[in-house]
Amino acid sequence: LQVPCAPSQPLASSESRRFTNKHSKKALKASLTLGILLGMFFVAWLPFFVTNVAQAVCDCVPAAFFDVLTWLGYCNSTMNPIIYPLFMRDFKRAMGKFVPCCRRPAEPRPSGVSLSVRNSHSAPRASAFLKSVL
Fold first, then answer.
1. Could you list the residue range(s) of the whole structural domain that residue 83 is in?
2. How many domains does the chain have?
3. Is residue 85 situated within a structural domain?
4. Would residue 128 count as lying in a domain?
5. Residues 6+ positions from 28 with CB-CB distance below 8 Å
6. What is the CA radius of gyration of the chain?
7. Rounded-to-10 torsion of CA 84, 86, 91, 95
């Protein structure tokens, strides 16, 4: 038995290219960010773990050098909050909402009450209740 194929309607050529180009840019930016984060992680922690194994095998690593490598790993954790805002717009926006020094003057911080009313499914009743309580 053969099933007849319905002709599909292709997207317009320019619309298709724009859609593909937009998503490929996002994918490229996401892979770049991930590559930088993983690269920083390996640069920071790989020497520590290699030295840790060497210390277990031959007991030949000076304590001061081991401490320096440990702090290099800790610096990786310090770099993450710097790297994320540089490469991720959504992270930058979220950080601006909750960290006072990163907020724009025209962007007031949402209060807990407005968030709960906005996220509730019964907004009219909740707002009426809150007005009567307040």
1. 16-96
2. 1
3. yes
4. no
5. none
6. 26
7. 100
What confidence tens digit (pLDDT) does each residue in 55-90 have? 999 989 999 999 999 999 999 988 887 888 887 778
Is 114 part of a structural domain of the chain? no
Which tokens is 91 given? 């992270």
Report DSSP state, residue 102. Answer: G
Check pLDDT > 90 for residue 52: yes
CA nearest neighbour of 74 among 47, 45, 38: 45
Residue 115 is inside which H or E element, if any? Answer: helix 112-119
> Are the C-beta atoms of 76 and 41 separated by less than 8 Å?
yes
Query: Could you give the CA distance from residue 107 to residue 109 in angstroms, rounded to a whole number?
Result: 6
58 domain residue, yes or no: yes
The C-alpha angle 99, 104, 105, rounded to 5 degrees, equals 115
